Amino acid sequence: MTKQRALIMNILNQSDRHLTADEIFFLAKLKMPSIAMATVYNNLNAMNDAGLIHRLHIDGAADCFDKITEPHDHLLCDGCGKISDFHLPSLSDTLEATLGHPLLSYDLTVHYLCAECQKGKR
Amino acid sequence: MTKQRALIMNILNQSDRHLTADEIFFLAKLKMPSIAMATVYNNLNAMNDAGLIHRLHIDGAADCFDKITEPHDHLLCDGCGKISDFHLPSLSDTLEATLGHPLLSYDLTVHYLCAECQKGKR
DNA sequence: CTCCAAAAAAGAATGATTCTAATTCTATTA
DNA sequence: TAATAGAATTAGAATCATTCTTTTTTGGAG
């Protein structure tokens, strides 16, 4: 656990949003101007591999990173791109039952229109 | 519907696998040597936007494209990278009920170990 | 204090994808 | 049939996120 990793972890923990590597880099640079992009990626990848954080791919955008509090799924508004979290606890069991063998994990992203975009009908 | 688009559509329809843009480009070039990569992407993007095919992102690999026969979800072996299809018809309704509002679509990828990799315990 | 290994820094390199500009089709109209 | 306009294609440059390579720094063990 290096200073850099602690800083990146902090930034993720204190954000309520999903951050791109670029945003994390920007925020990290405010606190530690010497930090390099490669360090951000190295640590994000290491933490992702260790299961401490979660890399989220959204079509047509840079990957986002997400602190992991509990397993959760994502809700993406196709109008404004806002991402929110939700969780369907029964899904894991349902999937194992359907497939007939154990699963390691799953990624679920639901596309919808948030209330504002629904109104604007974009 | 241009010749190029028909060719790309054919390649996707005749494949039982999920193909990357690169693979599609290679196969297309066999039949139509003058075809350009940009044309492949243009058409794949257009068809994806029109809902005729489906772009699938797999972490750490190039995006794949998939003909759409019926809505389906993906099963990814974390050992060998093999992709297969399955479908959980009830999920859409379950999600709408849980979220309390309509959804546009969803993407579900389940990670598991296929029978061979299970044996090899990679 | 010195040495070693691990991590970080810098910035070049990569690779998938998109963009731009120029060319070629296609379909329609005259 | 010829002319024209618009759309699609081509070629290849450009972009952007991400990774890689090399050098430098750091922090702990002896």
Word description of this protein:
2 copies of one chain form a homodimer. Chain A contains 5 helices and 6 strands. By secondary structure, chain A is an alpha+beta fold. Chain A folds into 2 domains: 3-66, Orthogonal Bundle (Arc Repressor Mutant, subunit A); 73-118, 2-Layer Sandwich (Dna Ligase, domain 1). Chain A has a 3-stranded antiparallel sheet with strand order 1-3-2. In chain A, strands 5-4-6 form a 3-stranded mixed sheet, with no helix packed on it. In chain A, strand 4 and strand 5 form a beta hairpin. The radius of gyration of chain A is 17 Å and the shape is globular. The termini of chain A are far apart. Chain A binds chain B through residues 55, 57, 59, 75, 78, 86, 88, 90-91, 94-95, 98-99, 101-113, and chain B through 55, 57, 59, 75, 78, 86, 88, 90-91, 94-95, 98-99, 101-113. Chain B binds a DNA duplex (30 and 30 nucleotides) through residues 2, 4-5, 20-22, 34-39, 41-43, 45, 62-63.
Topology, number of strands of chain A:
6
Enumerate the strands of the largest sheet of chain A in spatial order, edge to edge or round the barrel.
Answer: 1-3-2
**Rg measurement of chain A, Å:** 17 Å
Q: What is the subunit arrangement here?
A: homodimer
Low-confidence segments of chain A: none
Number of helices of chain A: 5
Q: Into which percentage range does the β-strand content of chain A fall?
A: 15-25%
CATH class of the largest domain in chain A, please? Mainly Alpha
CATH architecture of the largest domain in chain A: Orthogonal Bundle
CATH superfamily of the largest domain in chain A: Winged helix-like DNA-binding domain superfamily/Winged helix DNA-binding domain
As for the number of domains of chain A, it is 2
Shape by Cα distribution of chain A: globular
User: Strand pairing plus helix content of chain A: what structural class?
Assistant: alpha+beta
Straight-line N-to-C gap of chain A: 45 Å
Biggest interface in this structure?
A-B, 26 and 26 residues
**Sheet with the most strands of chain A?**
3 strands, antiparallel
> How much helical structure, as a percent, in the residues of chain A?
40-55%
CATH topology-level name of the largest domain in chain A: Arc Repressor Mutant, subunit A
Q: Helices and strands of chain A, in N-to-C order?
A: HEHHEEEEHEH
Mean pLDDT of chain A: 93
